[in-house]
Amino acid sequence: MRTIAITNTKGGSGKTTTTVNLAAAAVARGKRALLIELDPQGTASKIQLGTEHANMPIEHTAAAIFGDQVPPMEQVVMTTKHGIDLIPATPALNKARHEIAERGLHLLRIRSMLTKGRAAERYDYVFIDTQGAMGEFLNVGLFSADEVLITSDPTNESLICVGNTMAMIEQVNESRLEMNLSPLAVLGLFLNKTEHHRKGTREALDDAMQADKAGYIRLLATTAPLRTIQQEAVRMNTPVVLHAPASDLAKSFLALYDELFVAPIIETSDREPKLAVVTHG
Q1: 121: buried, middle or exposed (CB in 10 Å: 19+, 13-18, 0-12)?
Q2: How far apart are CA 198 and CA 153, in angstroms?
Q3: What share of the chain is helix, strand, coil (3-state, %, to 5)?
Q4: pLDDT tens-digit map of 86-131
Q5: φ, ψ (nearest 5 deg) of residue 2
Q6: What is the tens place of the pLDDT at every residue in 13-50?
Q7: What is the pTM of this model?
Q8: Contact 159, 152 (CB under 8 A)
């Protein structure tokens, strides 16, 4: 089982859309996927996956994970109509914010629940949709995952936030080592809302990394264009990968899944990405 947090400290970076569609791509490829939402707005749960959100009992949402005891995984997991298992978020998650801040062990609650629930026997992938701002729920996501994918559009403003995000990940990794956790592996940067890599993106990204004293990040070959079909998919409460699988946007998310998990790209000494020979199932 691979556990991946999708993140950026800037809101509107496409992380929720990417998370939902990566999970949908996994299901479309015949894999088992769990999506954990850690954004109290519940965009993934309510808007993109169409769950009955308004009257959902707290004990069946992500908020229950941060109560007095870690709940059984079955208590908080629901299966959506799209075949994606989901731990939904509602505004009730906001009540857990102070608990997480005051009791650092809450950072490991999701890891504990997944272990006790034998999630590795049930899922191939766990995707964690983090909150688009620095804070407790972003920290929880980064401590819960083993890998992290950063999303962004190709504007300079957003790329600067990628530098901020990478710097935060480095700080989290220092704390993870103190807690006997392996450092997060950064899968790379996925650009969305664009037709192609904007000229100078690599240079602008390197400048952002240097400004934040952050490390090098791989720019993924796959990008996602800005398409109105995404708005239509949202209105239908369905991931675009399932709503319009023949669209170029859906194909972009399927290609992203393949790039990350089927034929992953490896880094070479000259920083030019090349396809790995060994594939993952």
Answers
A1: exposed
A2: 10
A3: 45, 15, 40
A4: 999 988 888 877 777 666 668 899 999 999 999 999 999 999 999 8
A5: -110, 135
A6: 889 999 999 999 999 999 999 999 998 888 888 888 87
A7: 0.88
A8: yes
Q: Is 34 within 8 Å of 87 (Cβ atoms)?
A: yes
Distances (CA, A) of 188 to 84, 102, 127: 24, 32, 15
User: What stretches of 96-196 show up as alpha helix (H) in DSSP?
Assistant: 97-102, 109-116, 119-122, 136-144, 156-178
- pLDDT of 141-182, one tens digit each? 999 999 999 999 888 788 888 888 998 999 999 999 999 999
What is the C-alpha separation between 201 and 191, in angstroms, rounded?
10
Tokens of 243: 């709503």
- In sequence order, what are the residues at sequence separation of 6 or more whose Cβ sits closer than 8 angstroms to the Cβ of residue 136? 96, 97, 100, 101
Vertex 260 angle, CA 197 and 16, to 5°: 70
